[in-house]
Amino acid sequence: MIKTKIIEIVLIEDYKLTRIGLRSTLNEYEGINIAGESENAEEGLKIVKEIKPDIVLMDLGLPDMNGIEATQQIKSFDENIKVIILTSHDRDEEVLAALGSGANAYCLKDIEPNTLVNIIKDVSNGATWLDPAIAKAALKLFPKPESGRDYNSSTATDIKSKLSAREYEVLALVVKGMSNTEIAKELFVSVHTAKAHVCSILQKLCVDDRVQAAVKAVTENIV
Questions:
Q1: Around 205, how many Cα atoms within 13 Å sit in the side-chain half-sphere?
Q2: How far apart are the first and last CA of the chain?
Q3: How confident is the model at residue 189 (pLDDT cuts 50, 70, 90)?
Q4: Residue 174 belongs to what H/E stretch?
Q5: Closest CA to 204 of 153, 176, 146, 163
């Protein structure tokens, strides 16, 4: 019998009630273990260095250091540790900073538990994820085209011509914030097939991950 790989998680969240809720909820799912937790970044970073978890669930609004800086520090000493930013903030300036922090996923705290678990599993396997609400906020960070310019439309047409009908469909689901698992269920294909489509899309869009793909798809009117 093949044993399920346990995903070790550290919670860094200053609200005790939220930590208790996350710990209680996530520990109910097979294959997930809350290995450590902290109410501030300094202590959290020490725990992460000691435990070396698979994933860190990181709040943005920490009392001693914001979650973006903490994420950058984690990535600086071990880029293999995945970071999921879990926050109630979606202000434009925080979105911009979050997109550049190196985190592997960006989720708002009103996310459904099952969705969060799917994201955790996908991120542990190398995927990235962007909450649709954050993608919409990211749109505001890009300048609108000048009147009379058709750059965006021509660029979008060029990119669309490179995508197959199925890839275009998958890209639209990526923009909606769906994980590979959710895309597979939506399109009635295997997770492996969904992942292959996403990899092909990243190559054709000349981006490094699905976060960049989602932002590019929306900002350049591809979907």
A1: 29
A2: 44
A3: very high
A4: helix 165-175
A5: 163
Domain 151-219 grouped into CATH 3.90.1070.20:
no
CB neighbours (10 Å) of residue 197? 24
The whole-model pTM stands at 0.68
Each residue of 64-105: pLDDT tens digit? 988 888 998 999 999 899 999 988 865 655 666 666 678 888
Per-domain boundaries in the chain: 7-139, 151-219
Task: Give the pairing type, strands 55-58 and 105-108.
Answer: unpaired
Name the CA dihedral angle for 102, 86, 58, 11, rounded to a multiple of 10 degrees. Answer: -140
The CATH class for the domain spanning 7-139 reads: alpha beta
CA distances from 197 to 141, 176, 207 (A): 28, 16, 14
7 contacts 54 by C-beta, under 8 angstroms: yes
H or E element, residue 38: strand 32-38
pLDDT top residue among 146 and 7: 7
**96, two tokens:** 């911009």
Which helix (DSSP H) or strand (DSSP E) does residue 82 occupy?
A: strand 82-87
